[in-house]
Amino acid sequence: MHSDVPWEVWSRERQQRVEENLARTLADEPGRLGEAMRYSVLGGGKRVRPLLAYAAGEVAGADPARVDAPAASVELIHAYSLVHDDLPAMDDDTLRRGKPTCHVAFGEAVALLAGDALQARAFGVLAGSGLPGAAEACALLAGAAGATGMAGGQDIDLGATGRTLALSELTTMHRMKTGALIAAAVQLGARSGRPLAASQTTALDLYASAAGLAFQVVDDLLDVEGSAASLGKTAGKDEACGKPTFVSLLGLDEARCHAATLRAQAHDALAPFGNRARRLHELVDWIVSRDR
Q1: CA 166 → CA 177, 192, 245, 276, distances in Å?
Q2: What confidence score (pLDDT) does residue 235 get?
Q3: At 82, is the pLDDT very low, low, confident or very high (cuts 50, 70, 90)?
Q4: Tens digits of per-residue pLDDT, 170-222?
Q5: Ranges of each domain in the chain
Q6: 87-96 pLDDT, tens per residue?
Q7: What's the burial of 67, exposed, middle or buried (CB within 10 Å: 0-12/13-18/19+)?
Q8: Is the pTM above the cut of 0.85?
Q9: pLDDT tens track for 234-263
Q10: For 195, phi and psi rounded to 5 degrees?
């Protein structure tokens, strides 16, 4: 379970594993809708949330096969959110993962339905996994994706365009919009193994909270410093749309410092787990140092 394989090898193996599982999951989705679903999910993306699920599974001694369903389900939710976020009524973007967004390729109506169907499929995967506690896992994922999590955070984001938010408001927004699903990925992965003590579950929540926020800070930095070619999506979009970001609020240097502080908090939270948390440590380092 805790092999000495390098991070690059471990992460690539897990990314390939979830890619194959997602391809099997969506293989029989029919017609043009099924094509749009596969287009939006397969062949791209960093798979951060599945990687977090597999890494948290190692903390709880879970075999990777037991994490397959939770890992796929969180990625399906993430993919649906991207399809809907890119729509003209939301962020109105035309590039995602280096190719035209779903609504550009298939039309707005099909993109709406593809997002709906991906969300439904996510819960079907989790409910049909045969894992103990599948109902509770579905409830956890629903909370992360709903009005008090990802969807609610996106609603706040839409309403914040053109406004300046306080750091506490911006943090709350992104703990919902980005952090909630990241926290769900960690908890679902951990639930795939042996039961953890309440203090250990809390430690994972603290890790996920810091890592999720660090992910968003780095996203904001890359939106300013990256290019469409490197990012696979439109660069500079947040500033052009007047969206509040950690960079617009703090500036580049202070935003980098904030990401480093959050990374340190994530590492500190993992102290109770020793070497079992190796991949979670490596993941937050990768999240903060990434260039796309």
Answers
A1: 16, 38, 10, 37
A2: 62
A3: very high
A4: 999 999 999 999 999 999 999 999 999 999 999 999 999 999 999 999 999 99
A5: 7-289
A6: 999 999 999 9
A7: buried
A8: yes
A9: 666 777 778 899 999 999 999 999 999 999
A10: -60, 140
Q: How far is CA 134 from CA 127, 139, 174, in A?
A: 5, 9, 27
* Pair 180, 112: CB distance under 8 Å: no
Instruction: Give every CB contact of residue 167 below 8 A, 6+ residues apart in sequence.
Output: 249, 250
Q: How far apart are the first and last CA of the chain?
A: 29
pLDDT at 2 over 80: no
> CA 75 to CA 47: how far, in whole Å?
7
Q: Give the helix, strand, coil percentages of the chain, each rounded to 5.
A: 75, 0, 25
CA distance 253 to 267: 21
Distance CA 11, CA 5 (A): 10
Alpha-carbon torsion angle 175, 179, 181, 183, nearest 10: -110
What's the rounded Cα separation, in Å, for the pair 252 and 220? 9
- 21 close to 68: Cβ distance less than 8 angstroms: yes
Q: What is the pLDDT of residue 229?
A: 57
CA 110 to CA 263: how far, in whole Å? 39
- Read off the amino acid at residue 232: G
Q: Residue 227's pLDDT is what?
A: 66
C-alpha 176/C-alpha 173 separation (Å) is 5
pLDDT category of residue 4 using cuts at 50, 70 and 90? confident
Using a 10 angstrom Cβ sphere, with 0-12 exposed, 13-18 middle and 19 or more buried, the burial of residue 127 is: middle
Q: Is 7-289 a domain of CATH 3.90.1150.10?
A: no
